[in-house]
Design goal:
Length: about 750
């Protein structure tokens, strides 16, 4: 890190400091940096009376006349930490999502880079020359520890880590120093990725490197999307393939094409923690190209994040697999971005800036002239509409690999089951029979219930009150494992009540059931079955989910019960039965996307069955068997569902026909929140064009979270940018007080 203070300035650059506001500052460039300084470099700059880190945003820059500029203090790394296209992408995000530039920069650049984490230097030892027999014999007599080091290094396939060698051999540093002085051993200080030493995906499933021969549909898909990839022309494609159609094989073929041309690729997945199979497949299939696959996930330490980031910036790793934030990876010569399961809501950021990883991926591909592939068996209606309108290419995979049949789909009307059972049954008779048959045939089953805990609410029949969370507007959920009630929004916990907190009646009843209750019922029905539960309560231990999935693949688990974390990324050929409990649970949500999400969830979970040589079956338990999403899912008819749902959306003016922007106001004083929201709408209505529709303000469906009262306003607009040009100055003038915070959510997915 060269110190450049006092050198003659020669030019100017705009630098955005971290934690220094949302605008760039102009600094003079010392002459020594002129040949090397470029956009994306991390530098140290004086700001006020302190030296801070910042990123070069523009070079050269126009220096204000008559102003004496302060010089850049030092260059932090020789390699840029951001690519120029990501810098332009950050500017677009701040404009499109109506948020501060500083919040975007904090999202785009990992904190490990912004806070100046340094790379780890590892000292590597190699044999400088082979000792003669006389030298080795003399060392064994006079310096046996040095001879031990030589024996160790001669047996290593490559350079050995000095610290590990010294510790493992139980010797002192002087023995190594003596060999270096004698010219027998050479030492090199090198930056080694920490992720290579502590990678939780290093033992991911290994698959044959040769891969599979593409079937005609897959080969046609690769050829269609590979044309633009070869020409370096931006194009977004929707790869619409039924579950089990081999979309991953198409992705890998395209990634290999991008790498063979000297480029790099980003592979976005909804939850990287649940994709060890995908990671193993990528690493095995790309090994012959000599590139490292970086897995960008939440379990990386700050140092590991820094190393992974720099490995991408240096071009050492040309493929990254990760969740939405991996879209900002500083890969040089980006040729391909894959967004797998593009419909998943987890691609939407829940904190400012509330960006959507899929849309940001498309924009980054546009900025770099890359190909963007959006893959799904149940694409979002926004993506489907873009494909139907010709804005995206549409590529179809209509058959499962090896022409395997889709699983048989059975709908069980739980209203009839209630008549034959005492109370509300957890498992229908048909599902119980199906589980018994699979256990007898030594086949595996997956049961899906998208509600964790034991019972969803405690209701008092005497006063009719459901025990609420004291901080949020939701009832508390019973967790039988530790006899507590919990709020799944703020994590409030308390001992499970034995009497009603309101009227003290001892007649309280627990209503509804979650995964804990389902686990109890299954264990009672099948005491010899090997059962595992996967939800947020059981998967708290680091990497435990991977152990459970590994055991399931190895056949050490008969029945896997879980929430939505088992709905995607699983490919187990021995699973022949999938049971979906409370299939219409998501239909009860106060959200215009409820039908779409229900259809997607049913189709995705059902797709886990029958992916091997054995035929699969799906049993769906529902109280609304005639509802559109359930009936269309039964027929595997996405296009029919999309046509019906889009017609309904057009009738009410919902997306994708218009953009939905949600404006949330929150504060501890409910009256202030209500007044602020109402006053804001009155002032905004005076400035808005006629083609913008305002709905609200009104209390959010969940009116209070963590003691914060919440109101929201919906804006339905034909285009985002013109609307924000009107809203932004008004927002700066009227809002921003300490008592009431406001959050703008462009293309909102969360309506609660």
């Amino acid at each position: 890190m060269p110190d450049l203070l006092g050198e003659i300035a020669a030019g100017a650059a705009e630098v955005v400091p971290f934690d220094g506001g949302s605008r760039p500052y102009t600094y003079s460039i010392p002459r020594a940096l002129l040949p090397t300084l470029k956009v994306g470099h991390l530098v140290r700059i004086p700001l006020g009376n302190r030296v801070r880190l910042g990123v070069v945003w523009k070079v050269p820059a126009d220096a204000p006349e008559g102003t004496r500029l302060r010089p850049i203090t030092a260059l932090e790394h020789e390699q840029a930490v951001l690519t120029p296209d990501v810098c332009r992408l950050a500017e677009w995000m701040a404009e499109y999502y109506g948020c501060s530039f500083n919040s975007v920069l904090e999202t785009v650049l990992p904190s490990a880079v912004r806070t100046g984490v340094r790379p780890v230097l590892r000292r590597l030892l190699t044999l400088a020359r082979k000792p003669t027999d006389e030298e080795l014999a003399a060392l064994r007599r006079r310096a046996p520890k040095q001879a031990l080091v030589l024996d160790y290094l001669s047996g290593q396939p490559g350079p050995a880590d000095r610290a590990k060698a010294v510790d493992g051999l139980g010797i002192g540093q002087t023995a190594v120093d003596g060999l270096i002085a004698k010219g027998l051993v050479s030492e090199e200080a090198k930056v080694i990725l920490r992720t290579a030493y502590d990678d939780p995906f290093s033992d991911a499933e290994v698959v044959p490197s040769a891969g599979h021969t593409l079937n005609p549909e897959q080969a046609a898909a690769v050829a269609t999307m590979g044309e633009g990839l070869a020409r370096r022309e931006f194009r977004a494609h929707l790869l619409h393939g039924v579950t089990g159609s081999g979309k991953t094989e198409v992705y890998i073929s395209l990634i290999r094409q991008a790498l063979a041309a000297g480029g790099s690729a980003i592979f976005l997945v909804p939850e990287v923690a649940l994709t060890p199979q995908t990671v193993g497949r990528l690493r095995s299939r790309l090994a012959d190209l000599g590139t490292q696959v970086v897995v960008w996930h939440s379990h990386l330490s700050a140092g590991e994040r820094f190393d992974a980031w720099m490995a991408m910036a240096l071009g050492q790793a040309r493929v990254v697999v990760g969740a939405r934030s991996a879209v900002f990876a500083p890969l040089p010569d980006l040729r391909l971005i894959v967004v797998d399961e593009e419909h998943e809501p987890s691609f939407k950021q829940s904190e400012t800036p509330l960006y959507h990883g899929r849309d940001v991926a498309v924009m980054r591909a546009k900025l770099t002239g890359a190909t963007c592939v959006l893959g799904s068996a149940t694409p979002s209606l926004e993506t489907w509409s873009n494909a139907q309108a010709g804005r995206y290419g549409l590529v179809r995979l209509t058959k499962r690999v090896d022409d395997r049949p889709m699983p048989a789909f059975r709908i069980v009307d739980m209203r009839r089951e209630v008549l034959h059972a005492k109370g509300s049954p957890v498992l229908a008779r048909e599902l119980v029979d199906g589980l018994r048959e699979r256990l007898a045939r030594r086949e595996q089953s997956i049961l899906f219930l998208n509600r964790r805990g034991h019972s969803r609410a405690c209701v008092c029949p005497a006063c009719g009150v459901a025990v609420p969370c004291p901080h949020c507007s939701v009832p508390l959920t019973l967790h039988r494992t530790d006899h507590t009630v919990r709020c799944h929004l703020c994590d409030h916990r308390a001992p499970a009540p034995t009497t009603c907190p309101t009227c003290q009646s001892p007649e309280i009843r627990w209503k509804g059931h979650g995964t804990q209750r389902a686990e109890e019922v299954i264990a009672q029905l099948f005491p010899r079955a090997r059962l595992a539960r996967m939800d947020a309560d059981t998967m708290g231990k680091k990497h435990l989910f991977r152990q459970v999935l590994s055991d399931f693949r190895a056949g050490r688990i008969d029945i896997l019960l879980g929430t939505q974390m088992i709905a995607k990324g699983l490919d187990f050929p021995r699973v022949t039965l999938v049971g979906i409990l409370d299939a219409d649970l998501s239909l009860q949500m106060p959200d215009f996307r409820a039908a779409e999400r229900t259809f997607q969830l049913l189709t995705q979970v059902a797709g886990r069955a029958g992916r091997g040589d054995l035929e699969g079956a799906v049993v769906v338990q529902t109280f609304q068997p005639a509802s559109d999403p359930i009936q269309f899912a039964k027929r595997c008819d996405f296009e029919g569902f999309a046509a019906a749902e889009l017609e309904r959306r057009r009738e009410f003016g919902y997306p994708p026909g218009r953009h939905l922007i949600r404006h949330v106001f929150r504060g501890r004083n409910e009256e202030k929140v209500t007044f602020t929201a109402e006053h804001w709408v009155r002032e905004l209505e005076k400035a808005l064009p006629a083609n913008v529709e305002i709905r609200g303000p009104t209390a959010c469906p969940i009116a209070r979270i963590q003691e914060m009262h919440r109101h929201h306003v919906w804006y339905l607009v034909p285009a985002v940018a013109p609307f924000l040009r009107v809203l932004r100055p008004l927002r700066e003038r009227l809002l921003g007080g300490d008592d009431v915070a406001d959050i703008l959510d462009v293309d909102a997915l969360d309506c609660a």
